[in-house]
Amino acid sequence: MSPIIQTLMSQPLIQVSDSACQKLFDLVNEEKSSQDEQLYLRIAIMGGGCSGFQYDFEFCESIEEDDLTIENDINGQIITIIVDPISIQSLEGATLDYLTDMQGERFTISNPNAKSTCGCGNSFTLEEESKDTSKE
After folding, report:
1. Burial of 93 by CB count in 10 Å (0-12 exposed, 13-18 middle, 19+ buried)?
2. CA-based angle 92:98:101, to the nearest 5?
3. What is the dihedral of CA 6, 30, 87, 19, to 10 degrees?
4. Which CATH architecture has domain 4-121?
5. Is 92 exposed, middle or buried (0-12, 13-18, 19+ CB in 10 A)?
6. Most buried residue among 20, 110, 114, 136 by CB atoms closer than 10 A?
7. Is the CB of residue 15 less than 8 Å from the CB of residue 96?
8. Phi/psi of residue 22, nearest 5 degrees
9. Rounded CA gap, 73 and 56, in Å?
10. What is the DSSP string of 61-105?
């Protein structure tokens, strides 16, 4: 089975801003050891942080069978973001951005599924999936 490629959908599961695409393009080209090497950005949700969950970003060289891939064309090159099937459930509708401001430079994720974030912005809680409303 090949990875799920999200290129034909009218509304991607994760939006990627132009500034994030450009920064990914720059970073991938810096990290590559050769022009032929394929590097992908993997985004995952991990347990941890002061609010319960945090985002994990890492470059990798392979795509797992059940990964979702999100492809973006920048300067004629395809930049591929990989998300595992568990993390995508909590990232659907999110936007990956790259910010430069008084706090420095960083990737950020605006996630509509996050119920709240911590003060530093590095961790978050998720909406509760099932609420017991049957109390009488």
Report:
1. middle
2. 135
3. -70
4. Sandwich (2.60)
5. middle
6. 20
7. yes
8. -65, -45
9. 23
10. S---TT-EEEEEEETTEEEEEEE-HHHHHHHTTEEEEEEEETTEE
pTM over 0.85: no
pLDDT in tens, 47-61: 877 778 888 999 999
Q: Tokens at residue 37, please?
A: 């090497």
Q: Which two tokens stand for residue 14?
A: 């994760």
Query: Tokens 């990914």 sit at which residue?
Result: 24
Burial classification of residue 15, based on how many CB atoms lie within 10 Å of its CB (0-12 exposed, 13-18 middle, 19 or more buried): middle
What is the per-residue pLDDT across 122-135, written as a single tens digit (0 to 9) for each?
678 876 643 444 44
The Cα 89–Cα 65 span in angstroms is 17
Q: Which residues of the chain have pLDDT under 50?
A: 1-10, 129-136
